[in-house]
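A quick aside before the break. I want you to see a complete sequence-to-structure record at least once, exactly as it would be stored in a machine-readable document. Don't worry about memorizing anything.
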Amino acid sequence: MAAAAASSMTVVLRRRTRAPKRYSDTLFKDQDGLDCDDVYCERCGSGDFGSKLLLCDKCDKGYHLFCLRPILVSVPKGSWFCPSCSNIKKPQLFPLVQTKIVDFFRIQRSSESTEKLSQSNINKRKRASGIAMSKKKRKLLAFNPIEDPQRRLEQMASLATALKASGTEYIDELTYRPGMALRSANCAALERGGMQVLPKEDIETLNLCKRMMEKGECPPLMVVFDPVEGFTVQADRYIKDLTIITEYVGDVDYLKNREHDDGDSMITLLHASNPSKSLVICPDKHGNIARFVNGINNFSPDGRKKQNVKCVRYDVNGECRVLLIANRDVRKGEKLYYDYNGYENEYPTEHFV
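That is the input. The structure line, written in tokens, reads:
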């Protein structure tokens, strides 16, 4: 089983032992003078960028990672089958049944008095937010759920569809699993150069968002399947600048344990002065809507213009947390995008649409 070669070489990516040849037995020399199979991309017809060519484990045809739709960021582990052989279909919709959605998201079944208290909190938040914004321009805002309960069910069903299709269990907090990093390892004081502290009033806003989610009052977002970009997130109502969209959550692990991981949704949690203590969030098995917010192509001006969300790491009561926050007003129907390379500039986004 071969892996991707170093950037100085051009080697076709394979996930298994070489299959019987289906192409010409002739070999050619690439621009680096290396012998390569006569393999080309079924989408673009080019045999260039051999280090980005992935072979199907069934038909042995080649595809550039960046020509696939949705794009693959890295070669997947295990067997891989091309679109023709995998018969990829539109994901099965999660049933729009309240009891199933309540169970899937483990929503607290509130009494009538609790529901009234919830609405009171929302009204109080709206009044407080208006006053605070006039005094302090940079205060974070809690998301504003849609009032229609049926529409909120549709929003949650869209997220459940995406999570089930990707084999992800829903959580809304960082999780610490056996064999991974301990919670004690998540220490914001270890951040290289220091980490900005989330003010107390913004912590209260974040906690309010968490409480609303627990009661099924979700952010006004829909997860939509796009044949080009895969699952995407779009605003289901107008969202104000500085609104907390969601927290980026998942399993916390040491970066050193994930250096060869093919997950395309990992994000930095702690960039420690001592690299062995750096942490990442891995939402492939446990996560929330954050993993479906797409990244911009930050190699092009048009790509950078799409950004309407920023990813910010905060010190929250001594622990590192990652928040996705609107960095401008977002129109209803607008897809959400942020810069995957906000910190380390290591994510390959040059082929993003």
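Two observations worth writing down. Residues 1-36, 112-119, 124-136 have pLDDT under 50 and may be disordered. Residues 55 and 61 are 5 Å apart (CA to CA). We'll return to this after the break.
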